[in-house]
Amino acid sequence: MSASADKLAHFQAITGLQDADLCTEILSAHGWDLELAISSITSTSEEDHINLPTTSAIDNDNIATDRFEQSGFIATEGAGPPGLAWKLITLPISIVSGSLGLVSGAVGLGLWAVGGVLSYSLSMIGLTNSGTNGGSSSTPLVSLSTAASEAMDFVSKFESEYGNRHPNFVSEGFMDALQRSRHEFKLLFVYLHSPDHPDTPSFCEGTLCSEVMTEFVNENFVAWGGSIRASEGFKMSNSLKASRFPFCAVVMAATNQRIALLQQVEGPKSPEELLTMLQRVLEESAPVLVTARLEAEERRNNIRLREEQDAAYQAALEADQARERQRREEQERVEREAAEAEKKQKEEEEARERAAREAAEREAALIKLREEKSLLLGPEPEKGPDVTQVLVRLPNGERKGRRFHCSATIQSLYDFIDSSGSLEIGSYSLVTNFPRVLYGPDKLSFTLKEVGLHPQASLFVEQKS
Q: According to the UniProt entry, which residue ranges have a biased composition of type Basic and acidic residues (predicted)?
């Protein structure tokens, strides 16, 4: 029971059929021979199909079609099958891992489901024969440098034998060539070269390298060639189940590790026969390729439009940010200038208040000093022999007169003028005209009598510069 369950699970994994009852019916019809059951699904010839009940066949087709529609293989709704004899081929892991990148996701080229799901599993198409239990031996990986080197070596040897006129085989590994065909929205023309086959020289010279075939392939396909003597060419011959040579095929990328085999040509063919086959494949695939190209262009346009919209939004955002930054800077400048003006005004007010206060203090001190000087003068003496009459003429023409005792000092004369408030203290000197005598700081302690200003004296004020 466990072995039957394992075979059922393996059969579903390989064929992609999810209906357990249908899979059980197919396995039962083949005596639970896993390889024979899988062959009935993957075979394209009429005699290999098993005669299942009509309802089962219809369900099988519907399941297959639904599966491909869900996977995004159907190009456009309502598009009828092209009539191509195609099948899905799972590539060996060594071919896939030897490339720069895996074929992942729907390729966008689209495939049509005709009949059942025709696919080969990795275990069924490896380089070694699988056992009855579905096991397969491992194969060494083909590195990128090895695949590219084999491709370049193939082109070099092919040109040395058949000249430079031939399909433009790309000098890179199969997976890179497949990726190139995807990006260019073209099908991939595959040629597997068998150097020892007797039909190979005539096919290469008369068909493959003919002018009409070379021009047609170069214009409409990406071409890849490989020798079955080389590692990658040998693996591809196993993957494509090449049974006769010369061998050509037209494939396109599918999903994951799979390619779609649209056409295979085995055995020698004339240029006309091969050209007819290729033209038919190209014509039937054209709607899919055109649709894929248009969809890719639409995606690129959408991406470019989004980028332009993002750029415009970013520019508008940066402009808004610049305006906001400018507005904020202007506001900060106004606030800063207002703060500076307020600070300056406050400082000026404080300076004025301080100046007024200092002036008031000076004025008060001056008044106090004048009062003190007036007190020092004492009362004015009456006229008498020891009293000196002093007359002082101010710069404005005003005259100040007073009587002093002859024993009073020159300082008393300065105190008299200072106490009157007519002049700023210390800003002047007292002098006489005839003879001119300056009564400066050196004579302040002399008495009036000692300096000859008794019994009377006439002085005037001389402003200091």
A: 320-357
Residues 326-341: b if buried by 16+ CB within 10 A, e if exposed: eeeeeeeeeeeeeeee
Nearest to 294 by CA among 76, 120, 449, 104: 76
Q: Which helix (DSSP H) or strand (DSSP E) does residue 353 occupy?
A: helix 271-377
Distances (CA, A) of 445 to 410, 434, 437, 439: 6, 22, 15, 10
Strand order in the sheet with 456-463: 399-405, 387-393, 456-463, 428-432, 437-439
Q: Angle of helix 20-29 relative to helix 34-42, nearest 10 degrees? A: 110
Q: Using an 8 Å Cβ cutoff, are 224 and 231 in contact?
A: no
Identify the DSSP state of 141: P
For 385-410, b/e burial (b = at least 16 CB within 10 A) is eebbebebeeeeeeebebebbbebbb
Interval 255-312: pLDDT, tens: 666 888 999 999 999 999 999 999 999 998 888 888 888 888 898 899 999 999 999 9
